[in-house]
Amino acid sequence: MPGMTLYDKLVASHTVARLDPEHVLLYVDLHIMNEYTSPQAFSGLASRGRRTLRPGQQMAVVDHIIPTHPVPAARRTIQDPASALQAANLGRNCREHGVTLFDTTDPLQGIEHVVAPEHGMIRPGMVVLCGDSHTTTYGALGALGFGIGTSEVEHILATQTLVYRVARNLRIRVEGQLGQGVSAKDLVIHVVHRIGAQGARGHAVEYCGTAIDVLSAEARMTLCNMTVEAGARAALIAPDAVTVDYVCARAPDLQGEAGEQARAYWLGLRSDADARFAIEHRIDAAAIAPYVTWGTSPDQAMPVDGCVPDPEQAEDELARIALRKAVDYIGLAPGTPIAGVPVDRVFIGSCTNGRIEDLRAVAEVVRGRKVAAGVRAMVVPGSGAVRRQAEEEGIAALLSQAGFEWRQPGCSMCLAMNDDMLSPGERCASTTNRNFEGRQGRAGRTHLMSPAMAAAAALTGRIVDVRTLQSPGGPARGAQPEEVRP
């Protein structure tokens, strides 16, 4: 009998009952809620006269609809009536059910997928669910995380379990070393581009290899966060010393013998040597360049030295239709080099790239330079804790002096559910995870890239290879590459 994968082990250790060959009743260690996927669930409980079974294993945040205006946290308000009602309903529901809430004026408020790990809530071996697709982030710490729907939120509140269809296993081995100017964001965009938006559909992805081993915990979160854009139902990285150090630094309860027992258990969480995967991919890290999306799906991407593809070269008519639509929406002619395309806006933040390491990477590129004339550049920390740390390290002051807007935490311009959004036709260099039509605002055009690449775009006013700003042999600071108009 073959060995078990890490995913198989996590599912098996949380299976309350097997319902049929494909489904199990899965126990949930932690359930996270936000203001827009929880109201109907609480209403459902109330209509049945039920209470939250285990309130101590729930956590909630206000993050998607909250404005990020740079006012003190204690004075943050939501002016939009519908959004304010959502936040008020979440607050009332959490109070009534005894659920911890990071509310609008909480100095530690932030994006759910940033707040939970930084407070030591996510630990290897857990099952963590949330009504948000990017819950795959937690696989970076060896936890099984995935998004759920509103009806499932209600089921978890009532029973702390979920009826779950077991996924198949897919492994991506990344060997070698990422080059200068290449980050985990570039790696994951490369992965999504290579295997396609449906390439991991129905599968739990496990990352391994020498390139993964050297990534920080926060870089691994970026990788697992965006793997859902390839259709993955989960993304996992086996716990190691990097994981243990990150979690223990944020979990004061894990001291002494309890801590040693936890460490021993976590380091044993890995796939067996003879475990079988339905699909396997191997990637050479050294061959990856900084990546940029050109179209309206995260898999429509290319290295920064690439050109917009010609839809007429697609293999079949359906692909040609999809590419024509993307090219038309994004407003770039086939054959246009992506490097040199002007941008109107730059957004740095989100649950993909709003952590302190991301802001440090931005600061390294920005130091001594200024945002280009005519570009509006925003930096939105992923949480109040990240914001405070960036201010203590001098990052906030550096970015403000360079011309970036330094905002309060929230999902912000990742999606058009608040007042940070693109105007029709505006083009944005963004560190977010999705570039769908209208994602950042009606008729807005989004190019996904790494924090360093977004910083470079802010400084030059156009998409540019960040390595030309970092390399000793590259252009002088503030030099402008030749402009390419779409």
Automatic annotation (TrEMBL):
Q: Which InterPro entries match?
A: 3-IsopropMal_deHydase_lsu (IPR004430), Acnase/IPM_dHydase_lsu_aba_1/3 (IPR015931), Acoase/IPM_deHydtase_lsu_aba (IPR001030), Aconitase_4Fe-4S_BS (IPR018136), Aconitase_4Fe-4S_dom (IPR036008), IPM_dehydratase_rel_enz (IPR050067), IPMI_cat (IPR033941)
- The reply on keyword Phosphoprotein is no
Which reaction does this chain catalyze?
Answer: (2R,3S)-3-isopropylmalate = (2S)-2-isopropylmalate
The UniProt entry, under Pfam families, shows: Aconitase
Residues binding [4Fe-4S] cluster are 351, 411, 414
Q: What biological-process GO terms show up in the record? A: L-leucine biosynthetic process
Q: Is-annotated flag, keyword Iron-sulfur? A: yes
MF-aspect GO terms: 3-isopropylmalate dehydratase activity; 4 iron, 4 sulfur cluster binding; metal ion binding
The EC designation for this entry is 4.2.1.33
Q: How is the cofactor bound?
A: Binds 1 [4Fe-4S] cluster per subunit.
Task: Summarize subunit and interaction data from the UniProt record for this chain.
Answer: Heterodimer of LeuC and LeuD.
Family in the record? Belongs to the aconitase/IPM isomerase family. LeuC type 1 subfamily.
State the name under which the record lists this protein. 3-isopropylmalate dehydratase large subunit
Species, as recorded = Bordetella genomosp. 13
